[in-house]
Write a structure and sequence with these properties.
Elements (H helix, E strand, L loop, with lengths): L2 H11 L20 H6 L7 H4 L13 H8 L24 H9 L12 E7 L6 E11 L4 E6 L7 H5 L26 E8 L4 E11 L2 H8 L4 H9 L26 E3 L8 E3 L2 H4 L5 H14 L12 E15 L7 E9 L6 E7 L2
Antiparallel strand pairs: 1-2, 1-4, 2-3, 3-8, 4-5, 5-8, 6-7, 8-9, 9-10
Helix pairs in contact: 8-10
Length: 357
């Protein structure tokens, strides 16, 4: 087999790259001189590659020549320059929760940037399968970080965290009370991640999840608007409403000839939708969800205070470690980690470490 045949066979085994590090390709605002490119094909990245167009096409799997051209140019990856160096004198010496509060209150993080957005990750036992979802931080107290959600399904993490109910179903019928041992043990280890890209900072929290009492959850529940309360009752979170088998999707797609766009009524986002969306779309399960909503609205008609669903509530992540990351040029970031070694709440004792970036 010739060298060329061997190279072609190797390329055919490579998975197609839909995007190949377009952010790391050196920018080139002008098309290179054709004679220079011809004389030395690796001396300048071709304009169509520098612009990223070819790398986003259906044939974007790089050839060995393309890879050589890309690797021969310095990357233009983002450099972190927003903050001064982070030193030990700039962070709280004894309490990571107070340090988090200081960063969270940074005036450079306006409310419009939703700094409370975080990712909660958990893992099921015994497989160790990990799942994550984006939530909003609602409270920070002396014990830890509090988030609220529907916990009645695997995707809602109820069974992962609190274990299966007595029937063995992969769900929970109701939130356990703090210290409740009436259910099969779940995996209470969890992690929260906050990423504040505008200030080039990240916070990672790892610890044990504990349920809030029903009374605590009800305090927050009463602050939610009525529509959100109805939605919480109506939605069997992550339950499949509709599905299509492989090979059947084409018959469910919108006809391209009638896909005229119109603005969304009442929207200021500038996003358009097909003008005939109600006429040409098949029922994809949304109608069932809206039916459940209507049923709940009738059920609670005239009820001034909608009760808290048994499967909905808050959990607190009690930290075992908290890491504060701040970007720095050349990827030599500053990272400090607190490790809890004793106590809890304001009485907790923490070991402070600087980590290699």
């Amino acid at each position: 087999m010739s060298h060329n045949d061997t190279e072609l066979e190797a390329q055919s085994r490579r998975p197609k790259k839909l995007i190949f590090a377009p952010g790391d390709i050196a920018p080139d605002s002008e098309t290179p001189n054709a004679s220079e490119t011809t004389a030395n094909p690796t001396s300048a990245l071709p304009y169509h590659l520098a612009s990223g167009e070819a790398l986003r096409s259906d044939t974007s799997t790089p050839t060995s020549t393309t890879e050589t051209q890309i690797l021969s140019h310095p990357a233009r990856a983002h450099q972190f320059v927003t903050n001064p160096p982070l030193t030990v004198s700039q962070i709280h010496g004894t309490n990571p929760l107070r340090q988090f509060n200081a960063w969270f209150r940074d005036p450079r993080l306006p409310a419009s940037s939703a700094p409370e957005t975080c990712t909660l990750a958990t893992a099921s036992l015994p497989l160790g399968r990990i799942s994550s979802r984006v939530l909003y931080l609602k409270e920070l107290d002396e014990r830890g970080w509090v988030v609220y959600s529907n916990w009645g399904s695997r995707e809602g993490k109820g069974a992962q965290v609190f274990g299966q109910d007595v029937s063995g179903a992969n769900a929970i019928g109701s939130m356990p009370e703090p210290g409740d041992e009436g259910q099969t043990a779940g995996n209470k280890w969890g992690a929260l991640t906050f990423c504040w890209s505008t200030v080039e900072r990240q916070v990672r929290v790892e610890g044990l999840l504990e349920p809030l009492s029903r009374e605590e959850s009800e305090l927050y529940w009463r602050t939610r608007e009525r529509g959100s309360q109805i939605g919480a009752w109506a939605s069997w979170q992550s339950r499949v409403l509709w599905s299509a088998e492989p090979g059947k999707m084409d018959e469910h797609q919108r006809r391209k000839s009638v896909a005229k766009l119109q603005p969304i009524e009442g929207s200021t986002s500038g996003v358009d939708i097909p003008a005939d969306i109600d006429q040409t779309d098949i029922d994809d399960g949304r109608a069932l969800l809206e039916q459940w909503v209507n049923e709940m609205e009738k059920k609670f008609e005239g009820v001034e205070q909608i009760p808290l669903p048994p499967f909905w509530g808050g959990v607190r992540l009690v930290p075992e470690s908290v890491e504060f990351w701040q970007g720095r040029r050349s990827r030599l970031h500053d990272r400090f980690r607190y490790i809890r070694i004793d106590g809890s709440g304001d009485d907790a004792q923490w070991r402070l470490q600087r980590l290699s970036p």
